[in-house]
Design goal:
- One of its GO terms (cellular component) is eukaryotic translation initiation factor 3 complex, eIF3m.
- By secondary structure, the chain is an all-beta fold.
- The protein is about 0% helix and about 40% strand.
- The chain contains 1 helix and 31 strands.
- The strands form 7 sheets. It has a 6-stranded antiparallel β-sheet with strand order 3-2-28-27-26-25, with no helix packed on it. A 5-stranded antiparallel β-sheet has the order 1-4-31-30-29, with no helix packed on it. A 4-stranded antiparallel β-sheet has the order 5-6-7-8, with no helix packed on it.
- It starts with about 40 loop residues before the first strand and ends in a 10-residue tail after the last strand.
């Protein structure tokens, strides 16, 4: 069972001192603004041509030369979190916003303090790329979906592996229902098995947990990259390789609505993210757009156009902003425009559909994005294996369009 325990990043003096990838921690020094397990670097928030400066400050860490001010660049300081050996795939905050969970193509989901980026521990037990995770409303239960053809339930606090759902193909997406009594899980097409959406009942007492699915939906062609619950758990919204968003009845599995070619995406849907009030959601696609939809009627509300494929998107719970991330693979950059290889998170006004600015920093495509539930910070995960935690400066909240 020790293998499945939540392993702290810092051990006692008798221990090794560090557990996991990355450099060994330096001794604590009072001049350091953050624990030695994280690094704070300057971050440029670049603005579109003709826009006003958004956020600036003159804070300076001791021992670091302050960069010369730029006319069109404001400065925030991200926290770089190195806890994965391979590219990031998914990020998820808990309801209170004090914990951040990360998944990557390594086999070790990780939990961090969302305030300072200190790693709390890892969840060991998977044997493949972990594609997705979700955490229960009370932050006691974590579910993960993995390419090893399993979805696992974990004790958030101890890291203990509580239960394993076994499938015939890789698991791509997982999502708890409101109330945490159900979980929707999608599986990839593999060999003779087609893709599927399955609903599992989550027992209050783990000893009563059953492996059977209470609902199985088949039909969509190709991978189903995301599936989330609709209002009151009455529907399930899915999107994937066939570029179609579908709304299903969560009790009968009947297809209720689907996006059409005129309003829908033209290429693979990579991401689905709901608003804080659950009234609408955003979808990201390799067609270089993100779209805002009414969650009940599947009416297209807004479209955000970017210069690169969108791998991740999220809706601010505080302001009328959305953030998009993605980027061309390095092998394709030379065949596209000169800006396609810039890996930055782009902010758009949710209503006006206008670009507000961009946050650079990742050395590869951005694969995961998430806003803190309080709306005052966000995190990004990239192909470079880093999680970047960004706390907004006060001036960010005074952006005028």
């Amino acid at each position: 069972m020790g293998r499945n325990r939540l392993e702290p990043i810092f051990k006692t003096a008798a221990g090794s001192g560090f557990d996991g990838p990355g450099p060994r921690p330096l001794p604590w020094h009072p001049l350091l603004a953050t624990p030695p397990s994280v690094w704070a670097l300057s971050l440029g928030f670049s603005l579109p041509t003709g826009s006003t400066q958004v956020c600036k400050h003159d804070r300076q860490r001791p021992g670091r030369r302050q960069a010369a001010p730029a006319a069109s660049t404001a400065t925030m300081r991200p926290i770089l979190m190195k806890g994965h050996e391979r590219p990031l795939t998914f990020l998820k905050y808990n309801r209170e916003g004090d914990l951040l969970f990360s998944c990557a193509k390594d086999n070790t989901p990780t939990v961090w303090f969302a305030d300072n980026g200190e790693r709390l521990g890892t969840y060991k037990g998977h044997n493949g790329a972990v594609w997705c995770c979700d955490v229960s409303r009370d932050s006691t239960l974590l579910i993960t979906g993995c390419a090893d053809q399993t979805a696992k339930l974990w004790d958030v606090q101890t890291g203990a592996q509580l239960y394993t759902f076994n499938f015939d193909s890789p698991v791509r997406a997982v999502d708890f229902s409101v109330g945490d009594k159900l979980a929707v899980i999608t599986t990839d097409p593999f060999m003779e098995h087609s893709s599927s959406i399955q609903v599992k009942r989550i027992a209050r007492d783990i000893s009563d947990q059953m492996p059977e699915s209470v609902l199985t939906i088949r039909g969509p062609q190709g991978r189903i990259n995301r599936a989330v619950w609709g209002p009151l758990n009455r529907t399930i919204i899915s999107g994937g390789e066939d570029a179609v968003i579908r709304i299903w009845d969560s009790e009968t599995g009947k297809l209720l609505k689907e996006s059409d070619k005129e309003s829908g995406h033209a290429k693979t849907i990579t991401s689905l993210s709901k608003s804080a009030d659950g009234s609408h959601f955003i979808s990201g696609s390799l067609d270089k757009t993100a779209k805002l939809w009414d969650i009940r009627t599947l009416t297209l509300l807004k479209t955000y156009v970017t210069e690169r494929p969108v791998n991740a998107c999220a809706i601010s719970p505080l302001l009328d902003h959305v953030v998009l991330g993605g980027g061309q693979e390095a092998t394709h950059v030379t065949m596209t425009s000169h800006r396609a290889g810039k890996f930055e998170a782009k902010f758009f006004h949710k209503i006006l559909q206008e670009e507000i600015g961009g946050v650079k920093g990742h050395f590869g495509p951005i694969n995961a994005l998430a806003f803190n539930p309080d709306g005052r910070s966000f995190s990004s995960g990239g192909e470079d294996g880093y999680v970047r935690l960004h706390h907004f400066d006060p001036d960010y909240f005074n952006i005028k369009m």
